[in-house]
């Protein structure tokens, strides 16, 4: 695909009459619109205005119930400047190849990046790593998601209850089940490739209508974009085939939830993986840099949890006996732990990596990756020590400190005055994100659920 510059943009878009521009909100939802090409070309250098409410409302477009700088009683709802990122240019195969660009938010007065813009949060984290340490983090993410033979209309009509899956049974890694929806299955892989989102793997998983897609390993900033675009793209491609795709963390009580496992490693200026090449640590096959990064991640994990598990439902997934971690634990090639360490003899030194198994598919990829990168950077910079030794079995992992059981508990840990989240992400971002999660909890607290109706209406 032709690389866009200010000089050739009119030529590249010569046969287009419209352009789609999209932005990322606090929940990782893509928001955007179609611009006339003339309006787009005028906005390329100067940007265009977007209301601050885009960073001050929830997934259902409700303004946060707690006063903040982006919405509510203390906000003027002024415009932020949306700056178009030419490097994100791609065409959407399932939308007649309409061109698409991502944007970043900037302050219209100072011109500085808006601190709470998710793309800016990740960019800042990676840039600091590169500038101060000469190292670049690389990531891969595995997303699980359920697919239903539903539309939003049919789902609303049945009260979001008993959605019909597109496949029957658990069928992990099935060769048969994908053939029942073959056009959807292969279009997903092929169209995403054309959309500059290559999948390393794509298969059925352990659950009715459950699939897993592994987004190919890339530099962290690019990975944030690809993962956020992937979630919306998967939903759109599913819609084209009469399917509703859901990245909700735990839609079924009796089946495992949907994970968003993050794999991460770091390369130096020579392109060497510092997790596999460098000064060895006291732990066999782990370099000192890998141990420090891991230590920073583990020590930060309790207070960055709201970025990895951002919804009320997230914590229904993080329960025992469902292949999801519940403690601050780590182990060599152990899927029972929060962090799985992949080193020789299981991996070559060049491919040594950490797999963070806590995040759900409902995470905002930009913010989750930023939190992991920041904690790892802090761990290396301050040479953090591991809080405890490795665990291998589920029983050993269970003896480690328990992660928060609810969004309220996790948000309190993030909000604490001395939290690692505040150290690595800064007060301005943490203060706003805490407000967004407290709002989410408030909405839940005020809700009357079907559980309550079934349990109490007749008998109490």
Question: Which tags fit this structure?
Answer:
eight-stranded mixed β-sheet; Ubiquitin-like (UB roll); globular; nucleotide-binding; ATP binding; five-stranded mixed β-sheet; Creatine Kinase, Chain A, domain 2; 34% helix; ligase; 460 residues; 13 strands; Gln_synt_N_sf; ATP-binding; alpha+beta; 14 helices; 2 domains
Q: How many individual helices?
A: 14
Q: What would CATH call the architecture of the largest domain?
A: 2-Layer Sandwich
The strand count comes to 13
Regions with pLDDT < 50 over 5+ consecutive residues? none
Counting helices, strands and paired strands, the structural category is alpha+beta
Strand content: 15-25%
Largest sheet: 8 strands, mixed
Number of domains: 2
| Computed CA radius of gyration, to the nearest angstrom | 22 Å
Percent helix among the residues? 25-40%
Which fold name fills CATH's third level, the topology of the largest domain?
Creatine Kinase, Chain A, domain 2
What is the CATH homology-level superfamily of the largest domain?
Glutamine synthetase/guanido kinase, catalytic domain
Q: What is the H/E order?
A: HEEHEEEHEHHEEHEEHHEEEHHHHHH
What is the first-to-last residue Cα distance? 65 Å
- Mean pLDDT across the residues is 96
What characteristic shape results from the CA principal axes? Answer: globular
> Which CATH top level class of the largest domain fits?
Alpha Beta
Protein name: Glutamine synthetase
Keywords: ATP-binding, Ligase, Nucleotide-binding
Domain GS catalytic: 118-460
GO biological process, one term: glutamine biosynthetic process
